[in-house]
Amino acid sequence: MNGPRQDQTAKYCFGLLETPESTNCTSSKNEDSSSSNSEQTPAVPSRLLASSNSLPDSSTLTSCSEAFGNTSAKKRVQTPVIRSSSSLASKTPGTFKTPRTVGVRKTPKTPYTSSSMTPAAENSCSVIVAIVEGRGLARGEIGMASLDLKSPVLMMSQFSDTQTYVKTMTKLQILKPLEIILPHTVCESGNSSKLFKMISDQFPNTNISSVQRRYFNETKGLQYIQQLCIPEYKTVEMEVAGKYYCLATNAALLKYVEYIQNIIFAPSSLKVVFKGSEHTTMIDIMTAKNLELLENRRDPFSNHSLFGVLKYTHTAGGARLLRSNILQPPSDLETITMRQDVVREFTEKEEVFYNLKGVLSKFLDVDHIISLCVQIPKNDNVKTAESKITTVICLKHLLELVPVLQEFLKDCENPLLKAYCKTLEDPRLQIVLSKINSVVHEDTKYQKGTLPMRTQKCFAVKPKINGLLDVARRAYTEIVDDITSMVTQLGIQFHLPLRTAFSTIRGFYIQLCCSGKETFHAEDLPPIFIKVTKFKTTLNFTTADLIKLNDRVKGSLDEIYLMTNIVMTELLGDVRHHITVLYKLSETVAMLDMLLAFAHACTLSSYEFTDTLAIKMGRHPILEKIGAGEIVPNNTYAAEDCNFVLITGPNMSGKSTYLKQVALLQIMAQTGSFVPAEYASFRIASQIFSRVGNDDDIQTNSSTFMLEMKEMNYIIQNVSGDSLVIIDELGRGTSAEEGVGICWSVCEYLLKTKAFTFFVTHYKELTSLDNLYANVENYFMEVHRSFSREGGCEKITYTHVMSQGKTPEEHYGLMLAEMSTMPKDVLHDAAELAEMLDRLRQKNQTTDPEVARHRAIFKLASKLLQVARNSRLDLASLRAYLLNLRLHSGLHPPTATPPLATTKTAELTEGL
After folding, report:
1. How far is CA 494 from the centre of its chain?
2. What is the number of other CB atoms lying within 10 angstroms of the CB of residue 513?
3. What order do you get walking across the sheet with 793-804 strand by strand?
4. Is 631:623 a contact under the CB 8 Å cutoff?
5. Between 158 and 107, where is the model more confident?
6. Is the pTM value of this prediction over 0.70?
7. Could you give the CA distance from residue 870 to residue 156 in angstroms, rounded to a whole number?
8. Start-to-end C-alpha separation, the chain
């Protein structure tokens, strides 16, 4: 069951044989070592702490925080992200076949084990995915369900996939799962399925767990939806009715989350969404890596990727939305143009831009807060109680920001922004805030720092709601007063400048600063001071009496949390009745954040969508971000009459960079972002393919050539008329004759489609394709030659400028070889052989005048069709354009125009 990955077996297999009555779950300690020396305090006067009959106002709470040395007590957190504990249950339910394996799992527990909302990495993995494939005649039918532990949205999909499982791998790449659940029948050693093997190879760092096949039950999956889905999204039942496989994965996923993660969701609290692949552009895993969409291939930790270029988001939800849009851009024209208009309005209205940016920077992770609101812990303990209190405080913080966000959107004119403004006017938001304010003190705020947040949680509930709670809080403040008084007395007694400090690990302790004229050493301290540690110029220590008081503080605080939990549990139950409005708030904040990031990152002009790809003076977005020298802009053009662009030129002239630039600008345009160009027109692509790089793969025992063939086979099987294809130097892994033959054949196959293809090659034989196919255009990268007196040879200067035609450069590889230490006689022989082969090739490259004439006819007809469909010129400009076409068509007399072009010309002329 638990064999290594090399044996292609699942890491974990859980039988889920019977239902336990209860599951105990202990959480790990939430230790924040960074705060161990940052929060200090002198003695706190009792007047700063509340009595049992009154709660301190905001100034009192702030003064208390400042008294403990937290200089940022008054500041709001700019970009906090909620972090859940990554520890595991120390006790594993006895219902699984292999409980011993659970102890080494990396999957995080329920977020209720987190005692405070502390910042965490935005891209940390927290998604669990269940996958099942049909059997027999249904093989290739894939069902998938995913749930983010930090976002209570259940995503379901069902689609038909090929034997390469491209769609499945792409969806997993977007989800970035922490754990993948499969039926145990496909993971059995010696009988593992192809899907399991591919998932194991593509996601080696992801845990793969198996569950008995009987838990993939479509009836149970539908019951889960009926029970957990919020009423506003109940229409999803109609979408998934009859979709056996996605319902089956839904049942297995939720059962697994309940018994392994110890997470139970409240009834009617989940947002359930069925999402296929419609209205999105598919980008496979290899293309995402080749284009460096998420990370740089040389330096994965840098921001030199498309995600890094556009990531000006301020919220965790905005960053997640940006990531998913880059990996799977929308292909719906209305969606894209609506986003364009919003970005344009943000760039034109500077005040609105900065106002929205400022308020969004104060938002917490809305999705995670909703997730904590809808989860019901199996056991109420101090940790879960503290988490509930923190959740309510954070929710109050979010809802108080809504009116400010709404005010800044009021003056916006775009329909999408008006719709978001109307969403924020939903009265249920105010109802939820009113319910919270009826229980929580109005001065309670979300604050940065362990001690200030502890004070907020301790006094969150209003006085006189629970008498015992008021008594417990009075006891807590008295103990804190005793601690500060004791430290003050010790300082007076031993004539030392002592001060009280606090950390999550040690609790209250004593600090002695050694900087200045007087220096203190650990051995000089009185014996009453124990557990002495030194950090930089500060001595930290405690006393036996202080340890006892810390224990009393902890006991008093636990009592406060448990009594506060009773009130908060009832409050969260009321909040769940209006949970739908919080989901809408999450969508609004995430989309606004992403569109503001686009407005921040935009450089020059907007663009339009037609049936033509035309980019004037486009620049590579990542290179522009890096600022590596002067960026040379280039033009790009592809249309029906020239949908296949063949690019040649010397090594290091910028061909590969140009290919990636075209694809990156296409992706930016379809996400709704502006592109770095003077003008741009794009055709919406349903798929983006790439064949870039020449590395072998040791893991799959594939050579460079084998990888090329695998990737080209995938492209040929899936390419369509509205695809964008970039291919970089195909056929380098085999002999020249075979390479030319394969490239020629692949080119002819792609020419049968209407896909926009950009093909880089060093095989000059391919440049003859334009003699046979009118929709082939030759381009090359220009270089300048100059004679170097120092080296006594010609020198190449790269301009990185692309021009139309075939490269005039001959033997540029030999010129680069001359720069090395290769012997001159070897280079001389190589040059002679290359010239002889050139003469043989040139004999076969004769252009037939009739071929040139037919090519000109095709070009003219395509131009006229393009004008008829997309022209926005006025009458005078259109007449001038048509006359220019006639003069430069190369057809004399005009009667040579084919019937189709003649008809279109007549229509246009009649319109004039």
Report:
1. 57
2. 15
3. 282-283, 687-691, 723-728, 756-760, 644-648, 776-788, 793-804
4. yes
5. 158
6. yes
7. 39
8. 78
Mind listing the pLDDT tens digit for each residue in 652-681?
A: 888 999 999 999 999 999 999 999 998 999
Q: In the numeric block, which tokens belong to residue 452?
A: 């200030």
With beta carbons less than 8 A apart as the criterion, state whether 345 and 414 touch.
yes
Which residue bears the tokens 């503080």? 553
pLDDT at 162 over 80: no
How does DSSP assign 89-111, residue by residue? Answer: -SS--TTSS-GGGGGG------G
User: To the nearest 5 percent, what fractions of the chain are helix, strand and coil?
Assistant: 50, 15, 35
Question: What are the two backbone dihedrals, phi and then psi, of residue 155, each rounded to the nearest 5 degrees?
Answer: -100, 130
For residue 209, the SS3 value is: strand
CA–CA gap between residue 279 and residue 328 (Å, rounded): 10
Q: Which of 136, 195, 126 is nearest to 167 (CA)?
A: 195
Which of 434, 367, 384, 82 lies closest to 262 in space, CA to CA? 384
pLDDT digits (tens, 9 = 90+) for 250-296: 999 999 999 888 889 999 999 999 987 678 898 988 899 899 999 88
For residues 304 and 896, what is the distance between their CA atoms, to the nearest angstrom? 53
Strand 264-265 to 375-376 pairing:
antiparallel
Length of the chain: 912
Least confident of 32-36, 186-190, 673-677: 32-36
Which pLDDT score is estimated for 238? 83
Element containing residue 41 per DSSP (H, E): strand 39-41
Question: What is the C-alpha separation between 613 and 682, in angstroms, rounded?
Answer: 4
Residue type, 55: L
What is the spatial distance between Cα 101 and Cα 114, in angstroms, rounded to a whole number? 24
DSSP secondary structure string for all residues of 50-68:
--TT----HHHHHHHHHHT
Q: Lowest mean pLDDT: which of 462-471, 557-566, 810-819, 875-884?
A: 810-819
568 and 462 Cβ atoms separated by less than 8 Å: no
Of 46, 341, 13, 424, nearest in space to 188 by CA: 13
Range in 44-58, 284-298, 312-326, 538-552 the model is least confident about: 44-58
Contacts of 142 (CB under 8 A, 6+ apart): 131, 132, 133, 134, 157, 158, 159, 160, 161, 165, 167, 168, 245
DSSP characters over 647-702: EE--TTSSHHHHHHHHHHHHHHHHHT---SSSEEEEPPPSEEEEE-----BTTTTB
Nearest to 619 by CA among 634, 600, 636: 634
Between the alpha carbon of residue 876 and those of residues 32, 474, 869, 883, the distances in Å are 72, 86, 18, 11
DSSP 151: E
**Is 90 exceeded by the pLDDT of residue 547?**
yes
User: Other CB atoms closer than 10 Å to residue 876's CB: what's the count?
Assistant: 9
Rounded to an integer, the average pLDDT of 584-609 is 87
851-874 in b/e form (b: 16+ CB < 10 A) is eeeebbbbbbbbbbbbbeeeeeee
Per the listing, tokens 């977020």 go with 111
Residue type, 251: A
- What token pair was written down for 570? 């009832």
Cα 839 to Cα 833: distance, rounded to the nearest angstrom: 10
Is the backbone peptide bond immediately before 633 cis, with ω within 30 degrees of 0?
A: no
What are the beta bridge partners of residue 271? 153
Measured over the CA atoms of residue 739, residue 743, residue 746 and residue 748, the dihedral's sign is negative
- Stated as kind and residue range, the H or E segment containing 782 is strand 776-788
The contacts of residue 389 (CB under 8 Å, 6+ apart) are: 457, 460, 561, 564, 565, 568
Task: Tell me what pLDDT residue 605 has.
Answer: 59
DSSP class of 462:
P
Strands 141-148 and 127-133, sheet pairing = antiparallel
CA-to-CA distance for 809 and 780, rounded, in angstroms? 10
Instruction: Read off the pLDDT of each residue in 556-585 and give the average, rounded to a whole number.
Output: 93
Q: Name the strand (E) or helix (H) holding 759.
A: strand 756-760
Location of structure tokens 């301290």: 525
